[in-house]
Amino acid sequence: MKYLRRTTAIAAALSCFAFAANAQNNDQSGETASNTQAGAQASYCDKPWSKVDGNSDGTVSKQEASTAIENQFGQIDSDGNGEITKVEWITCMGSIDQQAAAEADRDKQNFAEADTDKDTKINREEFRKSAEQAFQDTEAGSAGEDAFVVLRRYVFLTPEEGQDQSTLKNMSEDEAAGRSALTFSALDQNNDDTITTQEWSERSPKIKRDEDWANAQFKEIDGDGTGSITQEEYRTARQQMLDDQLTTGSTKSQGEAGAEGTASTSETASDSGDGIPVYIYRFGTM
Ligand SMILES: [Ca+2]
Ligand SMILES: [Ca+2]
Ligand SMILES: [Ca+2]
Ligand SMILES: [Ca+2]
To answer: Which runs of consecutive H residues, i.e. helices, occur in 108-230?
Structure first.
């Protein structure tokens, strides 16, 4: 999927406003009626970090992944007819497009905390590991209030959630992982899978689920090109995203990082037997 994100990046940046308007029109047409009613619970379309790790053990089992995919599919298929039309897809992908994240104090000074190999870029793996560490520090409690300041640089908060500390302090690991993956994607404005100092310094990044991006994704997932997505097509696409990420991650580590890379590859391999660590799952499928 990475190449899709790259090729649509420029056009995508230009079409945000049109996309927001379109999503609104779809709302008015009644396409999202059942979706709006279901909005009382966390919906994937509003909160793409909604629960994946059902038993909160830090890994996503095959069964949990399967349940999450079914839930997501059901929420996107707002009329519940078993197929996702393009209107349903675009409405869902557009639903969080209109807001920017709450402010966080990312700047040139604290860039270094995630750029662990000091090549002046933060790659996906560096971001994932730093986000995970930031969450663990809040759990350990030894870093005190400062740990929450650091965590806030990684996890996506809506402007409303950013007004007090309660969301940040009550966050599960699963949720922190999902929100971090979303922040990575929001900060990586040019979709090249790395974050520059300048991209990192964006204090209030905007989600880019614009219409061009959504159209390209739809085309990719609708494998047989019938213009609607079946549950099987959706499942296959999600699995493919995860496989791509696991393959890219392990190839990169081996090639670039030597001994350290080998260690992270075997970590991935041994954990993927029954479940995939929740951070790897989230960063692979967001
Ligand atoms: Ca689990
Ligand atoms: Ca449908
Ligand atoms: Ca780096
Ligand atoms: Ca970038």
So the answer is: 124-140, 145-152, 166-169, 173-187, 197-200, 211-221
Whether residues 211 and 130 share a domain: the answer is no
Percent of the residues in the chain that have a pLDDT greater than 70, as a whole number = 76
List beta partners, residue 85. Answer: 228
3-state helix, strand, coil in the chain (%, to 5): 60, 5, 35
196 and 211 share a domain?
A: no
* Domain limits for position 244: 2-37+57-99+207-285
CA of 270 to the centre of ligand 1 (A): 16
Angle of the 211-221 helix axis to the 231-271 helix axis, nearest 10? 90
Name the pTM for this structure. 0.78
| CATH code for the domain in which residue 233 is found | 1.10.238.10
DSSP SS3 for 100:
strand
* For ion ligand 3, residues whose CB falls within 5 Å: 115, 117, 119, 121
